[in-house]
Design brief:
about 190 residues; alpha/beta; Rossmann fold; 7-stranded mixed beta sheet; 5 helices; 7 strands; binds guanosine-5'-triphosphate; binds magnesium ion; magnesium
């Protein structure tokens, strides 16, 4: 996995803007500001390919990144962001729901959770819904660099219990800051391709 070819190919707010070359897709889901776009940059070894921000609500469209001409990573707007209007929230919800329920190219979801805190009601709802519609999901607990090593297991347990993960369900400890968990996530993604 030395040299990765990665290119932004476009943003979508409706289905006719999705890519048309039928490559497999893997989408990023998670709360606003949890670190979805940062995870993409770390995975692809590109500092500023996906735009990130300290403020929630940065990603507002489904953004497609073609990787090695082999598959797409689809960055999505986060959920649980209080400071947008009800109308905007509903529109994002419809857009994401339509993409996740109807997109034939979609192979799986990288569900990003903040390692520092117990999963929220929104996190649980999203995870349960993904299971319900039958989409495979890898849970990635990110921002591990913000928790001391000695407390990782306790926090991982909190994530497992909060989402009611079964023992075999994948859970990856990750940091976009230092690249921890990157190889493990690559392996998991490659199994879907
Ligand atoms: P939205 O697009 O608003 O949904 O947010 P997002 O989930 O794409 O989050 P983004 O990648 O923009 O990151 C949000 C903030 O968290 C930024 O300030 C990042 O620098 C920071 N961040 C993301 N991942 C990590 C991480 O692993 N460690 C640390 N320390 N900070 C991180
Ligand atoms: Mg983002």
């Amino acid at each position: 996995m030395s040299k990765i070819k990665a290119e932004f190919v476009g943003s979508a707010v409706k289905p006719d803007q999705y890519p048309r070359d039928a490559l497999p897709e893997i989408a990023l889901a998670g709360r606003s500001n949890v670190g979805k776009s940062s995870l993409i940059n770390r995975l692809l070894n590109r500092r500023k390919l996906a735009h990130t921000s300290g403020k929630p609500g940065k990603t507002q469209t489904i953004n497609f990144y073609r990787v090695n001409d082999r598959f797409y990573l689809a960055d999505m707007p986060g959920y649980g962001f209080a400071r947008v209007s009800k109308a905007v929230k509903a529109a994002w919800g419809r857009m994401i729901e339509h993409y996740l329920t109807s997109r034939k190219e979609l192979r799986g979801i990288v569900h990003v959770i903040d390692l520092r805190h117990p999963p929220t009601a929104d996190d649980r709802q999203m995870y349960d819904w993904l299971k319900h519609i039958g989409l495979p999901a890898i849970v990635v607990a990110t921002k591990a660099d913000k928790i001391s090593r000695g407390r990782w297991q306790k926090h991982l347990k909190q994530v497992r219990e909060g989402l009611s993960l079964r023992s075999g369900d994948p859970l990856i400890l990750f940091s976009a800051q230092n690249g921890q968990g990157r190889d493990e996530l690559w392996r998991a993604i490659q199994e879907w391709l």
